[in-house]
């Protein structure tokens, strides 16, 4: 029989003994087991944890006495976060835990985010926090697959509201452990980025062709968290190749938008020497939260309101040149094969003639700057086509098939299909 899932339960046993005990009981009643890891530094709690705060400090390379003697709560928790992360990674590597549940206020949340960011995408992780979904949490510190539950009324002591939140968190992590399906690694995976079928449609053509060749395709929505997940997996070598065709998160980062995947966008695959086919899809606009005021500095620029959450404003030709230089610089740092596909007739669905973001001058600036600044190690291939045309997907497959033939991408079958993409695409 499959062993009951074991949950790494992280919290400060010295100040939250009752809450930790309640969570431990809830997990046990749900059919799970626990390893309680104590990150408190104030003293002993109401029960003995499985992993003491002394052990956590030792994992950080210090003693608990040294942590307590620091005299600064921030320094103390940073040290305990370091030790907790080391222990969590070790337990995972040893196969001793199936999920993690942490609870805390601002201090415990800060620590928990460090631990959970060190655990792989897809590993069940739940955070019960008094600041769940708060603006205090920067996007770059939130794991893309984190489940958060608001710890309402739980700052001090048990009550009915607190118990409701605690029980939900226990149920969430147990449900995730019972239901999670481990990624299938039998088929090699290709990572792809896109903004959605209303703006970019190449995945509709490429998915069946890649699957026919024996590959699995994972498409990431480039609205911040999706790009972060894509970069993390690319950097870890999870993909045998990437088709990174939607780069507006890079524009957002350069423009200071909140819809960002962080400073390392367009670097993960290159650093891991993963073969990458790249295109400047959707780099003609900057995104902002549609419910927030329109950003300053974009007066008179065309705008596309995608929905009540997300709106996009066209950027100037000068900004498009800046983006182009950033693209070629980052691709120039790549350690693996790199091809930059440049569709010269448009880069997303809303830039076609008659659409709100049609801007021939801006497109010409992007094309010119990419051609002028491309790095020696990057092969640029200009296409007299729109990114949503069949010719673009066909060109991407030609590059992919050439790498298959050369052995740069592991071939899951002896003779890959090379069926042309001449059929018209069905309406989205």
What's the CATH topology label of the largest domain?
Rossmann fold
The CATH superfamily of the largest domain bears the name: Uncharacterised protein family UPF0261, NC domain
Model regions low in confidence, pLDDT < 50 over at least 5 residues: 422-428
Report the helical percentage: 25-40%
Report Rg.
24 Å
Q: With helices defined by DSSP (H or I, 4 residues minimum), what is the helix count?
A: 13
Q: What series of H and E elements makes up the topology?
A: EHEHHHEHEEHEHEHEHHEEEEHEHEH
Q: Number of domains in the coordinates? A: 2
Class by SSE composition: alpha/beta
* Global mean pLDDT: 91
CATH class of the largest domain: Alpha Beta
Observed structural traits:
6-stranded parallel beta sheet, alpha/beta, 428 residues, disordered C terminus, 13 helices, elongated, 5-stranded parallel beta sheet, 14 strands, 2 domains, Rossmann fold, 37% helix
3D architecture notes:
- This protein is α/β, with parallel strands linked by helices and 428 residues long.
- It folds into two domains: 6-179, Rossmann fold (3-Layer(aba) Sandwich), CATH 3.40.50.12020; 189-406, Rossmann fold (3-Layer(aba) Sandwich).
- The chain has helices at 17-29, 53-59, 64-69, 73-93, 106-117, 160-179, 202-212, 225-235, 248-255, 268-271, 317-332, 360-373, 390-406, and strands at 6-11, 33-38, 99-104, 125-129, 147-150, 189-194, 216-221, 241-246, 276-281, 285-289, 303-305, 310-314, 338-343, 379-383.
- The protein has a six-stranded parallel beta sheet with strand order 7-6-8-9-13-14, with helices on both faces.
- Helix 5 (106-117) links the parallel strand 3 (99-104) and strand 4.
- Helix 1 crosses helix 6 and helix 2 packs across helix 4 (73-93).
- The longest helix has 21 residues, at 73-93.
- It is elongated and about 70 Å long.
- The two termini are 46 Å apart.
């Amino acid at each position: 029989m499959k062993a009951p899932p074991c949950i790494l339960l992280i919290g400060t046993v010295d100040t939250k003994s009752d809450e930790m005990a309640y969570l431990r009981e809830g997990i046990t009643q749900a059919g799970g087991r626990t390893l309680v890891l104590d990150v408190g530094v104030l003293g002993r709690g109401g029960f003995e944890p499985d992993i003491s705060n002394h052990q956590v400090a030792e994992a950080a390379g210090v003693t608990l006495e040294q942590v307590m003697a620091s005299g600064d709560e921030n320094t103390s928790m940073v040290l305990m976060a370091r030790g907790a992360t080391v222990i969590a990674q070790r337990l995972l590597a040893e196969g001793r835990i199936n999920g993690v549940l942490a609870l805390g206020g601002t201090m415990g949340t800060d620590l928990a985010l460090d631990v959970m960011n060190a655990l792989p995408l897809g590993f069940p992780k739940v955070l019960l926090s008094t600041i769940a979904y708060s603006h205090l949490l920067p996007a770059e510190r939130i794991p893309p697959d984190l489940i958060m539950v608001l710890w309402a009324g739980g700052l001090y002591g048990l009550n009915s509201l607190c118990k409701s939140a605690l029980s939900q968190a226990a149920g969430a992590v147990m449900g995730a452990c019972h239901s999670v399906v481990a990624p299938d690694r039998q088929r090699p995976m290709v990572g792809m980025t896109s903004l959605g079928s209303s703006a970019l449609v190449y995945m509709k053509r490429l998915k069946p062709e890649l699957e026919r060749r024996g590959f699995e395709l994972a498409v990431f929505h480039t609205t911040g968290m999706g790009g972060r997940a894509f970069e993390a997996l690319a950097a870890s070598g999870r993909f045998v190749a990437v088709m990174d065709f939607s780069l507006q998160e890079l524009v957002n980062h350069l423009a200071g938008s909140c819809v960002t995947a962080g400073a390392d966008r367009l670097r993960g695959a290159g650093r891991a020497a993963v073969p990458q086919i790249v295109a400047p899809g959707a780099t003609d606009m900057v995104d902002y939260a549609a419910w927030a005021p329109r950003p300053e500095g974009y007066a008179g620029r065309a705008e596309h309101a995608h929905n009540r959450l997300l709106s996009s404003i066209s950027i100037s030709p000068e900004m498009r040149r800046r983006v182009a230089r950033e693209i070629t610089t980052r691709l120039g740092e790549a350690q693996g094969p790199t091809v930059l596909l440049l569709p010269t007739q448009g880069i997303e669905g809303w830039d076609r003639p008659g659409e709100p973001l049609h801007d021939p001058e801006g497109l010409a600036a992007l094309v010119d700057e990419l051609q002028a600044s491309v790095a020696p190690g990057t092969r640029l291939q200009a296409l007299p086509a729109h990114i949503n045309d069949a010719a673009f997907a066909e060109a991407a497959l030609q590059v992919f098939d050439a790498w298959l033939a050369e052995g740069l991408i592991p071939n899951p079958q002896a003779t890959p299909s090379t069926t042309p993409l001449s059929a018209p695409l069905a309406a989205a």
